[in-house]
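Exercise 7b. Backbone tokens:
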């Protein structure tokens, strides 16, 4: 495995080879099929191996889970306590840990751990698994080659990040990819990738660096492809503005339950940034070359639909088939 978890100042240690930082959860972390681990306070431990959530026969006390949460958050360089009961960190090369403490967490301390896949599948590998069920793989490759700006959509756990990494890996090696993420987790098999990660404020409320600022800063780094790991707030305005000013080949992901839901999701994010529905529609239709929607069913993740953003007769955003 190529990803690591380490405490500050410690050398890199392969997670699934040691798992020491995960203490009582180490046996679950060792399982290379596991992509997500959930500790639901007194509700027990659950794991996802690709086929849905399964109960794990581990008996943990509230003290066990709380101590583990504090240790993992500290390993990510942040602090969690009753005054700051919610925290999200990245450990090593893409392990994401979210923790919630009582009283916000009503049944004891909650932990949500996402483990990145060891491999970084290329488009050819995805094609061999039947991933391209709704859009032909050749059409997707043509979009990448044509430097179309792509929006990858789907529900949580549908494979958006993995697919985006495979798409960007297909970009020419001569191109510079600049990635902006709230918590860095995108893994791209490409020789020229730089990543900017948002920073939360410290205990005094200072030092915050948000996604909107990172998008603006990234434009000064001369990206050939500008990538926003996930659109979920006011940063969508800065991204759409950047993609409308000659930055082709960009990409991002967006949570949406279906392709038809994408316009409403973009309008909602635009509203957070002070854009009305008409302004959002004109910006998005001009900036985004294609929307590729993923879904998960029966333990399989698939590209099930593709579309292009357009403006309807009411000046509102809509999606038409590719």
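Sequence design result:
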């Amino acid at each position: 495995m190529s990803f690591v978890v380490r405490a500050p100042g410690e050398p890199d240690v392969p997670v699934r080879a040691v798992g020491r930082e995960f203490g009582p959860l180490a046996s679950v972390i060792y399982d290379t099929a596991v992509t997500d681990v959930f500790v639901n306070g007194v509700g027990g431990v659950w794991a996802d191996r690709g086929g849905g959530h399964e109960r794990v026969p581990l008996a943990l006390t509230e003290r066990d889970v709380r101590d583990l949460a504090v240790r993992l958050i500290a390993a990510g360089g942040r602090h969690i306590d009753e005054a700051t009961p919610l925290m999200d960190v990245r450990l090593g090369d893409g392990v994401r840990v979210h923790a919630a403490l009582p009283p916000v967490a009503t049944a004891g301390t909650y932990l949500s751990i996402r483990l990145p896949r060891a491999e970084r599948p290329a488009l050819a590998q995805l094609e061999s698994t039947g991933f391209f069920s709704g859009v032909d793989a050749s059409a997707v490759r043509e979009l990448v080659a044509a430097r179309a700006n792509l929006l990858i959509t789907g529900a949580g756990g549908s494979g958006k990040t993995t697919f985006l990494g495979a798409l960007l890996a297909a970009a020419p090696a001569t191109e510079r990819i600049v990635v902006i993420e709230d918590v860095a987790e995108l893994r791209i098999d490409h020789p020229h990738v730089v990543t900017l990660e948002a920073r939360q404020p410290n205990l005094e409320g200072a030092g915050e660096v948000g996604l909107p600022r990172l998008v603006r800063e990234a434009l000064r780094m001369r990206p050939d492809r500008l990538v926003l790991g996930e659109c979920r707030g006011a940063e969508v305005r800065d991204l759409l503005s950047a993609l409308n000013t000659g930055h082709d080949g960009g990409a991002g992901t967006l949570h949406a339950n279906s392709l038809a839901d994408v316009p409403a999701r973009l309008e909602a994010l635009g509203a957070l940034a002070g854009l009305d529905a008409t302004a959002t529609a004109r910006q998005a239709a001009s900036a985004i070359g294609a929307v590729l929607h993923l879904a998960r069913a029966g333990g399989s993740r698939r590209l099930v639909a593709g579309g292009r953003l357009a403006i309807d007769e009411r000046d509102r955003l809509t999606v038409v088939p590719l």
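Instructor comment: The longest strand covers residues 300-311. Residues 140 and 167 are 8 Å apart (CA to CA).
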